[in-house]
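Notes from the 1:1 (GR / supervisor)

We went over the backlog. Supervisor wanted to see one worked example end to end before approving the batch request, so GR pasted a single chain during the call. The sequence is below; no edits were made to it. Supervisor asked that the structure be written out right there so they could see what the output format looks like.
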Amino acid sequence: MTALPPLNAIRAFEASARHLNFRLAAEELGVTQGAVAQQVRGLEARLGQQLFDRLPRGLRLTEAGRRFHSPLRRAFRLIEEAVEDLSGNRKIAISVTPSFASKWLVPRISDFTAKHPDISVQVDARERIADFQSDGIDIAVRQSRAPFAADLEATPLFTSAFVVVCNPELAQSVSQPSELMDHLLLSDSHGLWPLFLERAGVVGRPRMMSFSQTSLAIDAAISGQGFALANEPLVASELASGDLVQPLPEVLLEDLEFFVVNPKKPRQPELVRLMREWLVSQA
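Structure output shown during the call:
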């Protein structure tokens, strides 16, 4: 039987592989960054393989590192599940984008926890699509086009209706789409302004400011920097409060729908069912 590397070294590598950053891994493990880096170097020496490419900002897994991390993550997840099972704790992990988390999920999630106080919720909010197996995710909300992989179950949450929004003061300056050309248009990673303008019959090249996340474009619109083209459900609360208004009636309908996605054979079927039903009830 092959002698296993020290558990601390394996934990240091696994955390570093998830965060792709020694500092963040050290914060999670409660040790110094230097200790994590040393543990990983020792593990690489023992395995005779380089597991990371060291970059100026962060880390990148090598091919050997990717092969090593995937089964390790599953193994740690099994240990976590065993501990949770014995302790009686019930926890569900949901993966969403940062914009969906801040603009839709977080304002509503207290309703779920109030209805199910015995269930802990872990919100994994990042742009990268989380993996149901290696990242320990139970359920996710994805903005995508159908169909999904055969081993996934996808439940429609809401369609993608994009509306023009701005703060109330700026709204007085436009009454038709062509007048948007006199203002700064706030774009996100979807980059749908050109399509909206084309369908509205507007010609010309607008002034644009681009953001990597939808929530940033929405916040910029609230502060009066320009006009944003946003998913209607993501700005519903801002429209209701009056922080944003919809100055034009035109709506851009796209086939980029929001879906609740989970494996057809989830690890925690009952918790997944409860979360899926709650998400749909909030739409």
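Supervisor's comment: Residues 7-83 form a domain with the Arc Repressor Mutant, subunit A fold (CATH 1.10.10.10).
Batch request approved.
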